[in-house]
Specification:
Blueprint (H helix, E strand, L loop, with lengths): L8 H5 L3 E5 L2 E7 L6 E5 L13 H5 L3 E5 L16 H14 L6 E5 L2 H11 L6 E5 L13 H5 L5 H6 L1 H9 L9 H10 L4 H10 L1 H11 L7 E6 L8 H9 L3 E6 L5 H4 L1 H18 L16
Parallel strand pairs: 3-4, 3-5, 5-6, 6-7, 7-8
Antiparallel strand pairs: 1-2, 2-4
Helix pairs in contact: 3-4, 7-8
């Protein structure tokens, strides 16, 4: 049977689609059916359009469901979910809502800690994780402006500034990739007004929750691929190395880029993810992909 052509993300996501999950309106984009399934978590301060340069390549190999996490992108905020640990539990509910039985999860940036909390609590739920470019090290090792946001005592200055100029400044750090006009406007609209200021609360939870996550990492049974930018000054490479040193079934891939590696190094990022899905994750467990032992053997 001939496969249908893959729709570019710009065709799918320009008009936002929403699904209510546990009472929260979640923005999502979805590709066509494939045997393999993957749940993609959008990074901060972006949206599902962060996957625009990798979408077609990844959709060749998996049924993709990309979401804006609650409070981020175009999704509704619920204050009780604005921490990595709580967000990790919500990721489970998203997978259930979209009937993703055993998906891979791609969670760069803010998705890193949330995905790891989810995998630690539910070891058989996800086939694998792809994380990186997210805070992880204890004590906290971050560069500005993220470090400034994490330790800010007052969010009012960010409310006064508004989200648009802050996001504009962030996306200007892209070095190799030129955002489409659609993606740029989506990022800006996603955090306008006080929406960006309210997302800072999530990052401020790092001060307590990364210590909890540190103690869980050696017990995470899910295979984890960590992709990080060698020249990332916002989330330095030490965060990826911290994870790799503690996760028992992990591999670390370092690309020559700054923070937004899923865009600035899109081709390399997609190639690494594809290879991981094609069998790299299973080699971390010394099993054959798709065999009877695949993922269920450690439950």
């Amino acid at each position: 049977m001939t496969r249908r052509p893959i729709q570019p993300l710009s065709d799918i996501a320009t008009t936002p689609r929403f699904r209510t999950v546990d009472g929260v309106s979640i923005r999502f984009a979805e590709s066509g059916p494939r045997t393999t399934e993957a749940l993609l978590l959008s990074p901060w301060p972006e949206s599902v359009f962060a996957y625009e340069p990798t979408w077609t390549q990844l959709a060749e190999h998996a049924h993709l469901v990309a979401i804006d996490l609650p409070g981020f992108g175009r999704s509704e905020r619920r204050d009780a979910l604005m921490s990595p640990r709580a967000m990790g539990e919500f990721i489970l509910r998203v997978a259930d809502a979209f009937r993703l039985e055993n998906p891979h999860v791609v969670g760069p940036d803010i998705g890193t800690s949330a995905a790891l909390f989810a995998a630690a609590a539910h070891p058989s739920r996800f086939r694998s994780l792809v994380v990186g470019s997210g805070a992880a090290a204890v004590p906290i090792q971050l560069g500005d402006p993220l470090r400034e946001w994490v330790f800010a005592h007052d969010l009012e200055p960010y409310r006064r500034i508004g989200g648009r100029p802050i996001v504009e400044r962030a996306i200007r750090t892209l070095q190799q990739y030129a955002l489409t006009d659609t993606a740029r406007e989506d990022y800006l609209r996603s955090y306008e007004g006080d929406r960006f200021a309210e997302t800072i609360r999530y990052a401020q939870a790092y001060t307590t929750e990364l210590e909890i996550l540190r103690d869980l990492l050696p017990h995470v049974r899910t295979p984890v691929q960590i992709i990080a930018g060698r020249r990332d000054a916002v989330v330095p490479l030490v965060n990826a190395e911290f994870l790799h040193d503690r996760l028992p079934h992990s591999e670390l891939r370092v690309v020559d880029a700054v923070h937004f590696i899923w865009e600035d190094a899109a081709d390399e990022y997609a190639t690494l993810v594809q290879a991981w899905w094609a069998g790299g994750y299973a080699r971390r467990l010394n099993i054959v992909p798709g065999s009877a032992l695949d993922w269920r053997h450690w439950v």
